[in-house]
Amino acid sequence: LAERLQGTIQKIKGKGKVTEQDVKEMMREVRFALIEADVNLKVVKEFVKKVSERAVGVDVMKSLTPGQQVIKIVQDELKNLMGGEQSPIKFSNRPPTVIMMVGLQGAGKTTTTGKLANVLRKKYNKKPLLVAADIYRPAAVEQLQTLGKQLSLPVFSLGTDVSPVEIARQAIEHAKEEHLDVVLIDTAGRLHIDEELMQELKDIRGLKEPDEVFLVVDAMTGQDAVNVAQSFNETVGITGVVLTKLDGDTRGGAALSIRSVTEKPIKFVGMGEKMDALEPFHPERMASRILGMGDVLSLIEKAQANVDMEKAKELEEKFMTQSFTFDDFIEQLQAVKKMGPLDELLKMIPGANKMKGLDNVKVDEKQMGRIEAIIYSMTPNEKTNPEIISASRKKRIATGSGTTIQEVNRLLKQFEEMKKMMKQMTGMAQGKGKKKMKM
Ligand code: GDP
Ligand code: MG
């Protein structure tokens, strides 16, 4: 999306107002991105309609181009749609807090039960009790017991011959006696939603109103997630959602669909199989992920904040008249530096995090420092007319900047080539009768 969207943005750049046609074009891309991210079609339609209404006729703020503004609206609305802010866990003021985990088989309930217990202990200072109430899936009880051992947390189990409702009842009693303050019930899932399962879950619910009923959903299931969420919400009643397997390459459109269909907050996301791979849900990050554009907006904002438009114009003039000097060069360097560490910036570029080998790219900030030092060692006259720098001066500059003559030579050569290139570019631009030059 990012690339195509950028194209559309380029087109409407510089306009004072966003027209209906502009929005239509951008919304086509957004729509495409959402469908690609597996967002439910009905949800996509409603969303696009809402954003279009907000976007048409928007006045362009000084700091943003119309395109960026539309993207910002898209992102804001996505974020709102997913609940806006992070949603905390609700604890009972009469412990134990009861949290029930529900969902289809293989969604990640048991794993998430372990992870959640870990979070509760570490971040909330709670004493959780894991309850093995899945008596159907072979080895489900053992699976939870293994996790409990791994985490050094107590697991309550009555084997597989006692009904889940009875297990849950006794577990809550046990927690009271042992002063354990959160009871996490790992329930059975089915391959499909069925009456029996729902009744069982309702019965467990009936024991003591759970403080939270978390629906665990596999983010990779995409479209299906909507139906699952809807039926669980309607029959059992849920209070929140945990979206698992987001460490995979799914874009996570399920998050959007589930939220807008059930209106229940997504509380956590599973980012792996390990017991520490559970993170609070961040609507904003999810919005970017669904749109497939990294942190595009923060990148844009960063650039906007640091690149002075007036300055840019001035530079453009200098390019045209070929009066670009080392002083201008250093100003440019500093503007780039102000934007932050270069490797961080690189990471924000959409797709860049997926690019092979980017991990190894270390943008050399030391190198930039050396270039700066060389330029600072020049006299004002030399900065404007570097061709007057003699061999002995080169030596002095190298000594003064703590670099070598080779480095000084290289910089001078690069600068010369840059100017030559500018000359060609401006020549071309003027040849075509264009006044503007793209930077
Ligand atoms: P349950 O049937 O709902 O209890 O599902 P399980 O907890 O047994 O999980 C099913 C499989 O999904 C297991 O192999 C888990 O390791 C895996 N799993 C669960 N959560 C995640 C996650 O966030 N990321 C990844 N990659 N795998 C997960
Ligand atoms: Mg399980």
Automatic annotation (TrEMBL):
Q: Where in the cell?
A: Cytoplasm
Q: What is this enzyme's catalytic activity, as reactions?
A: GTP + H2O = GDP + phosphate + H(+)
Name of the protein described by the UniProt record: Signal recognition particle protein
Q: What does this protein do?
A: Involved in targeting and insertion of nascent membrane proteins into the cytoplasmic membrane. Binds to the hydrophobic signal sequence of the ribosome-nascent chain (RNC) as it emerges from the ribosomes. The SRP-RNC complex is then targeted to the cytoplasmic membrane where it interacts with the SRP receptor FtsY.
Q: What does the record give as EC number? A: 3.6.5.4
The protein's organism comes out as: Solibacillus kalamii
Write the record's keywords in alphabetical order, separated by commas.
Cytoplasm, GTP-binding, Hydrolase, Nucleotide-binding, Ribonucleoprotein, RNA-binding, Signal recognition particle
Locate the region Disordered: 426-439
Domain SRP54-type proteins GTP-binding residue range list: 265-278
